[in-house]
Amino acid sequence: YALNQHFRPNILELIPATSFSEFSAAIQIRNFQTRKAYPQYSIYTGASALVLRPILPKFKSTSNGAVSVGRKGSMLLEFSPANPSGGRNGYNWNEKINFALSIEEMGLLISQLPHYPVTLSRKVGDTVMSVNDDAYNLVSNTNEIVEKVFTAQPGDGATILFRVDYSKEGIGGQTPPPNSSEKSSSAPLDVLVQAGEWEIISSLLRDSIPSLSGWSTLVDVSLNNAMEFAEDEMY
Question: I want to staple 155 with a disulfide (CB 3.0 to 4.6 A). Which of 52, 76, 159, 191 is the partner?
Fold first, then answer.
């Protein structure tokens, strides 16, 4: 009998798994496709905790029906002080200070550390903006210029001291303006990153750049469209 529809094999099914473990991993990923995921990497020290979380890019539709990057993603660094009274996991998460790295700043850290120091800063504003927006660098309407400064200082034994602080006229240990979105009064916060931990962080930063820039997603879309076009040509 005649088929009413063309047979179009799933291209993923044509790719053989090289081992049973890879096949099992693929099945597990498929089972978790509809669930939320919260990727992060954490470092806990006696004084502070550091958590890395990716902020995913946002995409937009173009006038010709294509898709492009509306806003690039970033890597969020969360510094939280230790809680003397205990609390959840021993850290005061309400006093955390966030610093988001753009993909270009991620590349800067990879290229400079652990041999050269890196300093990045943001002006603390009185308007809540996305960490990816240029308008995030605002000055409080009280004319009180306070900067949030992130420094990565190489140390002995290939360690790196990560610090986030509030600075005014070059003097650290400041508090953010009362009408700003920044509320922490715990600056400065330090986390000593060991050599092995930096190796992990640098790998995560490097591997995340294609995804956070939107490159890998858009390339996958382009490849999928190319495969569909090729299948149409076959039939």
Answer: 159
